[in-house]
Q: What sequence folds into this?
């Protein structure tokens, strides 16, 4: 017995089951909101712990990652096995195991129940989806199953709460669970035979009558329509982000400008006013206005996952991923990277093959993350006209789609290069399940959107705030005396100050390197500052143009960029420069957090260093070609 | 009846077959995994559908639905 059971009164039970068994629904029903998400010490697999109170006693439950077997292939599965053996630091060996199995797939999962029982921990079986089994004409004799297995068995309908009280009552008595002495065969084929004998006595197999999911899949996964639907879903995804978010974004932008105007009106002229209005509202505010777009992106991803379409998309595109030596799960990891590379890189843990996993991690930052949205959003809204194409598509949405496509195709090509080159190796098995279609609940979707928005706002309040203040200081100091002839002109004085600031000195130092890309020193400062996080370039430009902008006329940053001029009067943002800048942001890995997560996931600085270097080189070359080509064509 | 066996990936959607054997060429870790997914000798497999691009293929086996690529399913020999 484990160390934890020496501590009377406290019980630790582990929930184990295959993916889609309803394990997490049961866990949520048992623990409610008393949950804590943490990482296992040493490895990066998340574990969710929750507590439930029964009879004045508290029982702690661990929700283990879903697994089909206890022969660990992926890091996720290794954790499951290690927890059962008590080999994980900070987590005691469980006192018992709750095996969760979908009643409709018992012919498969009974052998997993046996495999868990072999481990010798007291166990109990919870059968989910018994309503589904009945609806399809099947049946299970719970008492017979319990007698044959020699462990308690309870049937539940997790999402409707039926049977949950019975589970609580059984878990409360976990001390009395017995491990029946009859042994379960070790060999998997013999274990199936053992399971089949029990299955025969206790279960009536459901008919294979087709379900609603089948009816939908007939169209959604149709050989021809399936590809068309996949393409339409992906395209609409980006159209919606731009078209639907725009009015909300205008609202936010109006709010930020009004706040700046208000503060500018009440504060006395001086450094404090400059710090608040130009530095903080100009910098952080310029980034915060993109909350609607980010919320919408997260909402769409949550809906795709919640309805079950995400797995179908992986199923449709798997063949293509196979050409790159990757697999459908890499696609899911890469699609998650549209929100942010960090969850994408973490989702790669579910890929069993270490080389495919590493290749996925190495290309994930090419996927257009939410942090690029402010950059693209700013440039597209300012420089791409709102023309409609074919009467239905908005040109701005099409350009955004093009940028996403460029990033995704590049990730794919880089994947091919990695898998054919340094990361070549044996392929691991590919298998996946298509979950039934479901209407996602408001609670789950809302929670995911809120978590993502909160993370973005936290970043705005920390990394971006600090970067904005540092930038403000670099733009404000050293304070210089303007020449007498412009002393009366406030805008000219401000421009003179910025031109002679520390930031300008740094920017002008690197200007020769970035001039071939069509970038001036102001963009150069933005590029340096955005090494912390991509959105910081928006904050930087917002600040620079907030300083030099007309105090009386509070226009949006996009308008300011459009009107910006070089000293010789030529526009500061001609189209080739804008395009080159967007291409640079497609490729460059400007994100400290991503590098840190890469280091953690690959256990060292080698791979993040390689990623940063190759992505920077690709970004520079890509921007160079874009600028030089468009410059040659347009002039 | 060894002559009538064929690899699982050659069945067409809607067809049923019984798994007869798993090729000894199949790497051990792959073999163990497809077996825990329900693909063991004796199991009845039905082909549900092919992905629009032809691979992977979704199967129904032991009450569950699992999609496999040809790289795995070619090792499973079945008899109709």
A:
């Amino acid at each position: 017995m484990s160390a934890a059971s020496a501590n009377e009164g406290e019980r630790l039970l582990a929930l184990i089951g295959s993916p889609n068994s309803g394990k997490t629904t049961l866990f949520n029903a048992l623990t409610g909101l008393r949950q804590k998400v943490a990482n296992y010490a040493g490895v990066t697999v998340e574990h969710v712990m929750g507590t439930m109170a029964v009879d004045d006693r508290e029982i702690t439950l661990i929700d283990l990652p879903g697994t089909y077997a206890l022969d660990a292939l992926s890091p996720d599965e290794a954790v499951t096995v290690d927890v059962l053996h008590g080999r994980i630091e900070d987590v005691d060996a469980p006192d018992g195991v709750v095996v969760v199995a979908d009643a409709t797939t018992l012919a498969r999962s009974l052998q997993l129940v046996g495999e868990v029982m072999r481990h010798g921990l007291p166990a109990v079986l919870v059968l989910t989806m018994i309503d589904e089994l009945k609806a399809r004409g099947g049946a299970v004799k719970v008492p017979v199953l319990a007698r044959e297995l020699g462990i308690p068995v309870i049937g539940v309908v997790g999402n409707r709460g039926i049977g949950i009280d019975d589970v609580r009552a059984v878990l409360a008595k976990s001390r009395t669970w017995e491990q029946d002495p009859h042994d379960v065969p070790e060999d998997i084929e013999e274990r199936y035979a053992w399971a089949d004998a029990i299955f025969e006595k206790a279960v009536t197999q459901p008919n294979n009558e087709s379900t609603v999911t089948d009816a939908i899949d007939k169209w959604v996964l149709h050989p021809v329509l399936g590809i068309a639907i996949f393409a339409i879903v992906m395209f609409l995804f980006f159209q919606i982000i731009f078209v639907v978010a725009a009015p909300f974004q205008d609202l936010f932008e109006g709010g930020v400008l009004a706040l700046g105007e208000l503060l500018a009106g009440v504060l006395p002229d001086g450094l404090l006013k400059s710090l608040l209005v130009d530095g903080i509202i100009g910098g952080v505010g310029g980034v915060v206005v993109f909350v609607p777009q980010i919320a919408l992106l997260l909402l769409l991803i949550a809906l795709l996952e919640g309805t079950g379409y995400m797995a179908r998309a992986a199923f449709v595109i798997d063949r293509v991923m196979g050409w790159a030596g990757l697999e459908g799960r890499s696609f899911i990891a890469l699609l998650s990277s549209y929100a942010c590379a960090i969850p994408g890189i973490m989702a790669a843990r579910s890929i069993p093959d270490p080389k495919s996993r590493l290749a996925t991690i190495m290309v994930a930052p090419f996927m257009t993350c939410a942090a690029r949205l402010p950059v693209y959003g700013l440039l597209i809204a300012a420089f791409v006209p709102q023309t409609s194409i074919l009467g239905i598509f908005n040109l701005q949405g099409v350009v955004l789609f093009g940028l996403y496509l460029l990033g995704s195709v590049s990730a794919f090509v880089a994947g091919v290069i990695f898998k054919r080159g340094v990361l070549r190796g044996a392929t691991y098995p590919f298998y996946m399940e298509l979950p039934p279609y479901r209407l996602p609940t408001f609670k789950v979707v809302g929670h995911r959107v809120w978590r993502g928005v909160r993370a973005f706002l936290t970043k705005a309040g920390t990394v971006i705030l600090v970067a904005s203040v540092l930038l403000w200081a670099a733009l404000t100091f050293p304070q210089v005396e303007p020449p007498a002839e412009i002393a009366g002109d406030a805008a000219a004085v401000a421009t003179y100050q910025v031109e002679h600031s520390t930031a300008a000195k740094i920017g002008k130092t690197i200007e020769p390197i970035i001039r071939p890309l069509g970038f001036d020193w102001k963009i150069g400062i933005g590029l340096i500052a955005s090494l912390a996080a991509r959105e910081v370039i928006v904050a930087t430009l917002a600040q620079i143009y907030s300083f030099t902008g007309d105090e009386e006329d509070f226009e949006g940053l996009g308008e300011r960029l459009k009107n910006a001029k070089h000293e010789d009067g030529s526009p500061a943002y001609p189209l080739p420069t804008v395009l080159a800048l967007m291409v640079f942001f497609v490729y460059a890995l400007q994100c400290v957090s991503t590098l840190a997560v890469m280091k953690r996931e690959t256990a060292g600085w080698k791979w993040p260093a390689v990623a940063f270097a190759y992505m920077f080189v690709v970004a520079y070359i890509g921007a160079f070609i874009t600028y030089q080509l468009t410059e040659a064509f347009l002039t | 009846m060894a002559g009538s066996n064929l690899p699982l990936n050659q069945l067409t959607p809607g067809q049923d077959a019984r798994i007869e054997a798993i090729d000894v060429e199949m790497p051990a870790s792959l073999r163990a995994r497809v077996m825990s997914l329900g693909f063991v000798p004796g199991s009845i497999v039905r082909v549900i559908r092919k992905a629009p691009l032809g691979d992977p293929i979704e199967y129904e086996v032991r009450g569950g639905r699992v999609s496999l690529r040809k790289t795995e399913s070619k090792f499973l020999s079945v008899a109709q």
Summary: The helical segments of chain B are 28-36, 70-73. The longest helix of chain B spans residues 28-36.
